[in-house]
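Sequence, please.
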């Protein structure tokens, strides 16, 4: 017989796997037919967060952890575009997370809830950088979609850029806006 906490923890891990299949639905509004998944967004947000943390003198591991868990609630409530949130009265991300990990090992439940609560309510440099990473990832994704011919993404670029708080995020956003997404290849092609 499987330990109940092991089953609860494994169930949470299976649930997070759904993020690999769930699409970021806001891009549909821009006409993107096959948008990135929530997991794809969260992965690059974690990388961006660690990089921004290094630039800002914050803890890269903590920022990456905050970024990794920032959208895990979307297994339960999906990726609701900002326009849709206006019409919904949903449970807080902290409440969704508490439900998700309610059967997990107590240390796991406490740890995951602490990470999400900090992301949602904290004011540390790490939280600020994690929020910037989320916005910067959206901006970079919009640039990539624009290069693929989707013209209705400028609002995502503008709104993401306007919400960036750290100098490092603004600097990287400007760089991303002034290059192509494949320019990195020139490093080894030269």
């Amino acid at each position: 017989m499987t330990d109940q906490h092991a089953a609860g923890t494994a169930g949470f891990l299976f649930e997070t796997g759904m993020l690999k299949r769930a699409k970021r639905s806001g891009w549909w509004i821009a006409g993107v037919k096959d948008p990135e998944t929530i997991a794809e967004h969260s992965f690059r947000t974690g990388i961006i967060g660690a990089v921004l943390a290094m630039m800002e003198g914050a803890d890269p591991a903590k920022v990456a952890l905050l970024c990794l868990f920032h959208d895990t609630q979307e297994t339960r409530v999906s990726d609701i575009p900002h326009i849709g949130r206006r019409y919904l009265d949903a449970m807080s991300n902290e409440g969704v997370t508490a439900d998700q990990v309610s059967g997990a090992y107590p240390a796991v439940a406490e740890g995951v809830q602490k990470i999400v609560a900090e992301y949602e309510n904290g004011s540390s440099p790490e939280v600020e950088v994690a929020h910037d990473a989320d916005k910067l990832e959206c901006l970079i994704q919009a640039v990539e979609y624009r290069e693929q011919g989707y013209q209705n993404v400028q609002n995502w670029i503008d709104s993401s850029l306007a919400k960036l708080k750290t100098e490092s995020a603004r600097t990287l956003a400007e760089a991303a806006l002034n290059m192509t997404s494949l320019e990195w290849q020139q490093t080894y092609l030269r």
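The mean pLDDT is 93.
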